[in-house]
Amino acid sequence: MVCLIILICALKTKTRRSRIPSRIIEHRDRVRDEIMRQIVGNDRCRDIIRMGPQAFLSLCTILREQGGLRHTRRATKEEQVAKFLYIVGHNVRNRAMSFFFRRSGETVSRHFHRVLQAVIELEEVYLKQPDGTHVPQEILDNHRFNPYFKINECQDCVGAIDCTHVRVKVPVEHAPRYRGRKEYPTQNVFAACSFDLKFTYVLPGWEGTASDSRIVKSALTREYALKVPQGKYYLADVGFTLKACLITPYRGERYHLQEYSRNPPQNEHPNENLIDEVQREVASGSGFQEGHQTHRENNDDSARGELIRDNSDMEANKKKAREPKAAVVLSWTTAMNEVLIDAYLHQQTLGNKNGNAMTKNAMDIILQELHNHFPDKLNSKEKIKDHMKHLKSKFTSCYDLFKNGLSGFAWDPITSMWIAEPEVWKKLIEARPEAVEWRTKPTLFYDKLAQLFGKDRATGEDAETAAEIRARATRTGITIEDIDNLVFANEASIEGFEADDGVPLEPSPIRPSAARSQVVNSSGPKKNDDINTSDLGKSILEMVEVFKMNTVELNKKQNNTGGEDIWAQLVDIGVEPASLLDVYVHLVKNPDDLKAFNGVPLQMRKELLHRLVPNYYPNY
Question: Residue 532's pLDDT is what?
Fold first, then answer.
């Protein structure tokens, strides 16, 4: 550690930067200037950075004035923003941007995060949640929205919410948590927008396996939460839970646009019954979906899409007729569940689990295992998979509550129940009322199911809003500018060391007199740089040798204890004189046993000798 500190100090004493040849620097500057001229002044600007030249310059100004983006010593803010937009617009890799802009990969990454930080700083300016003080003009001016989304002065819609899956790249061990409905890992990004098509709230970071209802619950309860004004509500799809602040469609009803195009409304009067139902749901916070269908059968909305509904039902009936019906309903017992879970665990240990599912060969083995234990039970792969989904759904509700180790709680493998002090239970039930059922309800095979599904369960640990990211950066106190200052403090730039000086470059446009002057002026510092680099290299080699010597001596000290020290330790712990010589010879000939002997506390060494030395029985 001392040697590493000395090495860092030696690096900081370097006063001059290892210079890249001036002709290479000039060539790279010309390439960057030409790229920026093409971006700003070309008609194909939209194809490159997904916006026009004027919008690009306006964005750069906003990021400078409101986001705090600044020029660096060697890159303009326009170049940084252009690289950022090209990466996010075309999913370009870092090494490709490094080639096009003649920058190192570290520089491209740092510039990308500078712009990203500036964009995050715009959150409080552009992501404004509605306060509910006025009705959106888009509702008042639209006869399709006004009767339904403007119920009265206190209850009206403020926007819509939804989730969308965005593809991500994660480590292999975390991929099962992100691989949900898609065949590739995704993030389930939650967003809310107003009727003027502006985003008002965004929560990225949840794993792709997380359900929409779980994410909206997190959005409503976190520190920087989705705010719903009193008496207002958001529109949501059927993937969300019906709440006082969320209105979801009725299941079984058709809301697609094609219904309205083929069967337009028959009159101009709004459906008063439908408005009354929505008003009661907003007031009560619960949906009385049973019985709604009876009230709505006689109105005009029930006639819309009738032809489409009949055709769909006919196709569904044909499909059901082709499917064979199950002959016997399989009743799963506790013994069958245990055999099934053990078989799944065994196949997972063998590496036969591909993401969230078992391989075909593993499923054949599991099915055969069940047949061997329960030959009288008719089983199939489909029934096994369906039952495992059922077990997983029951497990996840408990796992999400206790998080596999909630403070103050422990799972008892004998009773299969969660145990805790009454005060701890009381606090949990007050905070989470759904926990009351687990106080008296056993959770069978929780430890095994945790091994099967625990690590693949979405946790939302990486979910953060822009406001939370800004708050975290404020707490840590580390900014991108601090990183820039650290980079510039150590002038040994990593940019351009891979350059090939033998590659012919186009002549420099500098005037001959200026070029000669530049060569003369650079000859002096170059020699000093060579001297400094040589001295630094010698210092590093010397410190490496010292570090190696210290490491060798430390290993000798740890592994090779002197004979006098061993004998003295044996006498101190009270080894019998008759056995002292045999024990001493054994430890000297067996370095591993000697290491184990020195690694235990002094009062336990005599007991350890009984296990290490054959035929040695200590007297106590």
Answer: 47
